[in-house]
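Re-run requested by the PI after the first attempt was lost when the workstation crashed. Everything re-entered from the original request form. Ligand of interest: pyridoxal-5'-phosphate.
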Amino acid sequence: MSVIRQNLQAVQRRIDEAADNAQRPAGSIALLAVSKTFGADAVIDAASTGQRAFGENYLQEALDKMASVQAERPDLMLEWHFIGPIQSNKTRPIATHFDWVHSVDREKIAQRLSDQRPADLPPLNICLQVNISGEASKSGMMPEEVIAAAHNIAAMPHLRLRGLMAIPEAESDPQQQRVPFRQVHALFERLRADGLPIDTLSMGMSGDLDAAIAEGATIVRIGSAIFGTRDYAKQ
Ligand SMILES: *Cc1c(COP(=O)(O)O)cnc(C)c1O
């Protein structure tokens, strides 16, 4: 069995164990395989185990990879998630080629994605990225901005608002890792109490997926634990 396939199994076991510890149903947490900097072959290898959802940060790299995968394995029905920073002049190809966007951090970007989503495709699934650590240098909406934006974005015709995404600062202590995830979850519950039909908390990466699951993550975004260490020059 390939290393990628072994890693996928190990990550799935970690997810199942974290779900069990949190007394959450097995299967309530989806695995997004973050394939950035890795090639089409890595995606095809992972897909051969049944992995369907792949996350990408860089638009051009993602489009090239999708085309290669499609050329080599037109039978694979993959789901592509954009998780990287979004420039407003790049929204059209994102709206055209992706199924999900996790990194929406401005209403203006959401409006463009809605306007540019092709009419023959289902609504684009959207998560709002929350800047939970409160650092001005990080991307994401401030929590106090999220409420009004979520209501406006939920009303956009070609989008389906699914929930929130966060990338907390790296932290090695497992208990401390849970603090920002708990804050994102509280904001998510607040939006649900407002009546928004959201169902997704996209949080947790290779180093903190257990803490994220303990705090309610429904999608974990895992790169290096599946595909290996990224080439620093390329990330
Ligand atoms: C790269 C990346 C990931 C995956 O990170 P790993 O630590 O490799 O698991 C998850 N989410 C986002 C937004 C990323 O950019």
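Saved to the shared folder this time. Residues 34, 36, 57, 83, 167, 205-207, 221-225 surround pyridoxal-5'-phosphate (CB under 6 Å).
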